[in-house]
Write a structure and sequence with these properties.
Elements: E1 2-10, H1 44-53, E2 55-61, H2 62-71, H3 79-86, E3 89-93, E4 106-110, H4 114-122, E5 128-132, H5 135-143, E6 149-155, E7 175-182, E8 188-194
Parallel strand pairs: 1-5, 1-6, 2-3, 2-5, 3-4
Antiparallel strand pairs: 6-8, 7-8
Length: 198
């Protein structure tokens, strides 16, 4: 399966709490919901719909899984929500127990076995394994060379600090820009893949 990461991102690389004020306040982050003014249903919404149409399963870190599990089941009847709810879901967590996995088709990958478990999924045949949010997990995936496609929805805003997805290990990772679309709100959907030979 290809691992495809989609992220809302500010110009200064922040991915924390794009959806709402209470989504993630770690570190005193006070700008939750910052992506809303720049959301364009056709370009930005279309990018997510297209990505989900190729997904065979979803992969989350614990916090993002909890946020999604609290939101999507109650939106049943909407085609996007129905697909989110129906797809197999994997959540990397040390602390969640199997009986807490109440969102339909959710399975836990123990945190101490995350890289091996994800590598095993990556090596299986099939469609895309889609990752949204989950900055700690995405940093690990990038560091381990497990990301096949990185779709950044860059919003024209500076947030001055917050969580990012980029490893800070000093490693050089070269990417190739394979497509870029700009919406009327100034949001850019940029798709990258690891450069050949990188």
């Amino acid at each position: 399966m290809r691992i495809v990461v989609s992220e809302f991102m500010s110009l200064d690389g922040v991915v924390q709490a794009p959806g709402g004020p209470e989504e993630d306040t770690d570190g005193g982050f006070a700008h939750g919901g910052w992506s809303h003014p720049f959301f364009d249903p056709e370009v930005v919404g279309g990018a997510f719909a297209e990505g989900l149409s190729r997904a065979e399963a979803l992969l989350f870190g614990r916090r993002t899984w909890r946020t999604m599990a609290a939101a999507w089941p109650e939106r049943a009847g909407d085609p996007f929500a129905d697909q989110m709810n129906a797809l197999p879901k994997y959540v990397v967590s040390e602390t969640l127990t199997d009986d807490e996995l109440t969102w339909e088709n959710s399975r836990r990958i123990p945190g101490d076995k995350a890289v091996a478990g994800i590598r095993e999924l990556h090596e299986t045949a099939g469609g895309d394994l889609a990752v949204m949010g989950s900055p700690t997990l995405v940093r690990t995936l990038l560091r381990e060379g497990l990301v096949d496609e990185l779709r950044l929805i860059r919003m024209p805003v500076l947030l001055g600090g917050g969580k990012t997805i980029f490893p800070d290990d000093g490693g050089l990772r070269t990417l190739e820009l394979v497509s870029s679309v700009t919406s009327g709100t100034g949001a850019q959907v940029c798709t990258y893949r690891p450069a050949a030979g990188a």
